[in-house]
From TrEMBL:
<feature type="domain" description="HTH araC/xylS-type">
    <location>
        <begin position="150"/>
        <end position="266"/>
    </location>
</feature>
<keyword id="KW-0238">DNA-binding</keyword>
<dbReference type="GO" id="GO:0043565">
    <property type="term" value="F:sequence-specific DNA binding"/>
</dbReference>
<dbReference type="InterPro" id="IPR018060">
    <property type="entry name" value="HTH_AraC"/>
</dbReference>
<dbReference type="GO" id="GO:0003700">
    <property type="term" value="F:DNA-binding transcription factor activity"/>
</dbReference>
<protein>
    <submittedName>
        <fullName>AraC family transcriptional regulator</fullName>
    </submittedName>
</protein>
<dbReference type="Pfam" id="PF12833">
    <property type="entry name" value="HTH_18"/>
</dbReference>
<keyword id="KW-0804">Transcription</keyword>
<dbReference type="InterPro" id="IPR050204">
    <property type="entry name" value="AraC_XylS_family_regulators"/>
</dbReference>
<keyword id="KW-0805">Transcription regulation</keyword>
Length: 297
């Protein structure tokens, strides 16, 4: 398992690793968090992918920042967050493994309707049965985090449904990497009318394609602020495809109910789950999938 990077400070040790080739189309990265004492962990904005959160001891919470509602994370869980802003925190020394799934790809790892998982914290046993409930204990028994991640990758490989069609996923990938694309053009590429495409996209992924694209654009800004804390919020928004600052402020308020200052502080002052090599690898995978087609990402 290839180690991407390690973040180490007084509050947290975070290790990111790339998945094996067998999972690279579906999994962006694996992360291991060693949390030596109580403190703040990543803020999770509305997003396009999914997270598997696997605690290995300690007490972790997810708090919806606007309502204040708290969820105790005491067993492996799946998070497909589309409309909420969630703060992850620890109230005591803890360890956590995280699997970051690429947009829409969790549906290839079980029979549960992916659209039904949106905006829920779903116990992993609902997807993978009772064997996943003890997954955290098994990972905790590994000799080191690298060995645990190898075991976690094996767990997912055994649940990957290789016969499920991935043709529609490519269109979703193009929209994720280019949220400025016209939905009508993607529908034409799929050989569908606009209404048929929107219905199929929503039924498959749980949100409408236009909303998916709006969230992808917002995530570009958040990713930039997290990976480059010195970057300008206004310039990052323009680079992400927002027309101007007022457009960005309006969309940020509608999608996350945050101000630009609140977004920036949440990304700059907390650890994060963003993979620094994600977009490059994702783009390379999609261009490979497109093959000889004359429209690279």
């Amino acid at each position: 398992m290839h180690l991407i990077d390690t973040h180490h400070d007084a509050h947290l040790v975070l290790r990111r690793s790339l998945p094996p080739a067998s999972l690279a189309t579906h999994v962006d990265n694996f992360q291991y968090l060693h949390i030596p004492h109580a403190g703040l962990l990543p803020r999770i904005l509305p997003g396009n992918g999914a997270l598997a959160l696997i605690p290995c001891g300690g007490t972790l919470q997810l708090t919806e920042i606007h309502s204040g509602q708290q969820h105790l994370l005491d067993e492996p869980a799946i998070l497909c967050n589309r409309h909420q802003v969630l703060d992850l925190s620890a109230s005591e020394p803890s360890r956590l493994f995280v699997v970051s799934f690429r947009p829409g790809r969790l549906r290839h790892f079980g029979d549960t309707c992916f659209a039904d998982l949106q905006d829920r914290i779903t116990p992993s046993r609902a997807l993978w049965g009772s064997c996943s409930a003890s997954l955290g204990e098994r990972l905790a028994e590994a000799s080191d985090p690298g060995s645990a991640i190898v075991a976690l990758a094996g767990f997912l490989e055994r649940r990957l449904q290789k016969t499920r069609s991935a043709d529609f996923d490519l269109l979703m990938d193009l929209l994720y990497l280019g949220p400025e694309r016209r939905i009508s053009d993607l529908a034409q590429d799929a050989g569908l009318s606009l209404r048929q495409f929107e219905r199929r996209f929503t039924g498959t992924y749980g949100v409408a394609p236009k909303y998916f694209a709006r969230v992808a654009r917002l995530q570009r800004v958040a990713r930039k602020l997290a990976l480059d804390p010195a970057s300008s919020t206004a310039l990052s928004a323009l680079d992400a495809g927002f027309f101007d600052h007022s457009h960005f402020v309006h969309e940020l308020r509608r999608l996350a109910d945050l101000s630009p200052t609140e977004l920036a502080s949440g990304m700059r002052e907390r650890p994060h789950f963003y993979n620094p090599v994600s977009l490059q690898r994702y783009t390379a995978l999609i261009n490979q999938a497109l093959g000889t087609q004359s429209r690279p990402v």
